[in-house]
Design goal:
- The chain has a single domain, classed as Cytidine Deaminase, domain 2.
- 21% of the residues lie in helices and 22% in strands.
- The protein has two helices and five strands, in the order αβββαββ.
- The structure holds zinc ion (ZN).
Length: 89
């Protein structure tokens, strides 16, 4: 990934507004090989570490659809970020 790239999850959270929490019910990100790619080439992408933290901050309790063993599964965002850093504010 290019250093200036921005993940879709971060863009979605920014579009929803960053001032309120509990805005995310369920989120899924997918990747496609491009316009020439076949629909079966679309894959669920697990959120990166930064997005996991953003999602847990702005959507505590939210569900995230990830891929396990080639199948989409719904998990709670907290399960993707064990021992999360807490600033204490
Ligand atoms: Zn990300």
């Amino acid at each position: 990934m290019a250093r200036i790239a921005l993940c879709a999850e971060a863009v979605a959270i920014g579009e929803m507004g960053s001032r309120s929490r509990d805005m995310v019910d369920t989120i899924v990100a997918v990747i496609s090989p491009g316009e020439d790619g076949a629909p079966q080439d679309v894959h669920v992408v697990s959120p990166c570490g930064m997005c996991r933290e953003l999602l847990s901050d702005y959507g505590p309790g939210a569900s995230v659809i990830i891929e396990r063993d080639g199948r989409p599964v719904r998990v709670k965002v907290e399960s993707l970020l064990p021992d999360k850093f807490e600033s204490g504010d």
